Structures are given as structure tokens and as C-alpha cells.
Amino acid sequence: MSQQQAQDQLATSPVARIEVLPASRTITAGDSVRLMVRALDASGAPLPNAVLYVQLRGGEGEGALDPASGWLVASSIGSSRSR
Q1: Does residue 79 fall inside a structural domain?
Q2: Cα separations in angstroms, 18 against 44, 69, 82
Q3: pLDDT in tens, 17-51
Q4: Whole domain around residue 66: which residue ranges?
Q5: Does 82 reside within a domain?
Q6: Is residue 49 part of a domain?
Q7: Nearest by Cα to 36 from 49, 52, 25, 20
Q8: Alpha carbon distance 32, 7 (integer Å)
Q9: Helices of type H across 1-83
């Protein structure tokens, strides 16, 4: 099966964008923030059955994210952006 045939068989995704909240936040070592990541459709409505996988990449500093709860705990000074 060619790549084009595989793409033709995929259903159109209802996901128009991914939202990360808070979009901007500064925390210092030892502080924590709860991140919420959700998929939105073209009208901005949440898609409750969407399955999202999150990976923290780039930025400076260190921290640990609990994927079950969404809590991010900073362990050193730095910054990162939500994309």
C-alpha cells in the first residue's frame, strides 16, 4: 500500500487545535502548576474523547510532570513555552 493510499483511508480528524492551559506561567524551583491539555474542534468546543500524549521538550530548567494528574513540579530555574 502506498503512502497516498494510506492517507486516503484515514478519517478526517475533528481536532482543529490543541490548547495548553495556563498558556504562560512562571514557576520557581519547588513550585508546581497544574497543566490542562485538551483538543478543540473548529468551533472551539472541547473534544471529550480525544486521546492526547504530552511530551515536554525544549526550554531551560528541569521539572517532573505527572501525566495522570497534570501537575508539573519545577526542580530548577528555567523557562519553557507551550506550543
Answers
A1: no
A2: 10, 18, 10
A3: 999 888 877 777 788 888 888 999 999 999 988 88
A4: 15-74
A5: no
A6: yes
A7: 20
A8: 41
A9: 3-9
